[in-house]
Amino acid sequence: MTYCVGLFLDQGLVLLSDTRTNAGVDHISTFSKMQVEEVPGDRVLALLSSGNLAISQAVWNRLQEGLWLDGEQQTLRSVPTMFRAAQLVGAAVRAVFDADGPALRAQGVGFDVALLLGGQIAGQGHRLFMIYAAGNFIEATADTPFLQIGEHKYGKPILDRAVTPQVSLADGVKLALISMDGTLRSNLTVGMPLDLLVVREGTQRVALHRRITEEDSYFRRVREGWAAALRDAYAAMQVPDWV
Amino acid sequence: MTYCVGLFLDQGLVLLSDTRTNAGVDHISTFSKMQVEEVPGDRVLALLSSGNLAISQAVWNRLQEGLWLDGEQQTLRSVPTMFRAAQLVGAAVRAVFDADGPALRAQGVGFDVALLLGGQIAGQGHRLFMIYAAGNFIEATADTPFLQIGEHKYGKPILDRAVTPQVSLADGVKLALISMDGTLRSNLTVGMPLDLLVVREGTQRVALHRRITEEDSYFRRVREGWAAALRDAYAAMQVPDWV
Lengths: 243, 243
Fold this sequence. Notes:
Two copies of one chain form a homodimer.
Chain A: E1 3-9, E2 12-17, E3 20-22, E4 28-30, E5 34-39, E6 43-51, H1 53-65, E7 67-69, E8 72-74, H2 82-106, E9 113-121, E10 127-131, E11 137-139, E12 146-150, H3 156-162, H4 169-186, E13 194-200, E14 206-212, H5 217-236
Antiparallel strand pairs in A: 1-2, 1-12, 2-13, 3-4, 5-6, 6-9, 7-8, 9-10, 10-11, 13-14
Helix pairs in contact in A: 1-2, 3-4, 4-5
């Protein structure tokens, strides 16, 4: 399993992923699920993946090698728009399905992959997409300014209640970490360390790319501070007069 | 879908269930998922159910009619201990499986049911069980003083962080409602109104049994107050010095 979340904020993008992969509960490993393409000042794009690791690595390799799109060989470093970038990722997913789908099906293995693509290309707005196993995709908007892949349920209530496009990047980092913390506690197949990426709107470059480990003192404060804040918040709530 | 939660506290039990049942998204109805047996001063038992409504109603009907256990016809009003009560519920689940399982399988319908059984019989401690579709069961202990059935993920982080056996019944009611609120927001197949039951340890009677509707002013305050408290709590958290 995996948990990845992307926040689509007025100030830019906050992207966070865990690094645990597992084949059963007795075979766990650490793999980054976040790939970044940066041409400073021109573009920055990040791809986060969940599902079968062999599929998501194959998708990334095909994107690196380039795929045929609109009559040209394209990569994430050459596509003219974020919409084309999402189409290119979808084309890579479909190419992997064409190559590996029948063999996976023969082994009774589903074609399980989902991806988040966020970024900005110079002269255009920043955008955030979720690409499905069918290669089609949806885009975050101001109505729902976050997207999640993998084990999304535990970490969703805090996002539902607090994420708006007006949230600052710094607050977005806090909310993504709080959402991840709830997931880490409840699902053993989501694990530390974490990869965090922040892209500030209009810069077309990485503002922050950080590997957050168990020893990270800020994340430790988030974990302890949030649990304490929740306990204080419910303790401060009035008791119903019918109890 | 369904969400039911039971808290096993030193002061007693807090049990909360939603009332929505659905067959597809275009066929939703309201059914109580909480059944209560009370012989004031002698015993109080409550059964909460999730899964296929035909199965859980059949289980309850068989419990009302009585089942053969240890060479005697027993009901929840006659069993001598809570352990026997859990066995009786398991026997009812197995009887329904024997009667309906083959026909369900022939239609491609799984045997989907899970139940929470909580209560107290005079002279014994209060106990809380979760009974599976196989008729076997587990029991809440001080290490994990809550059990959930149905759509449990959205509402679990707050319970993980705040529920201990020392939590008061009044605070338990708040926590169960907060946990339910997060679930209601995220899963359309969990719906109002709610059924709440509180049993105070050592009394063998219902302390509180309340139907909570959309108009309930306290639950409205919980929903609004909790969302505001979360926003305040994350806003008050320090920003990482590396942002």
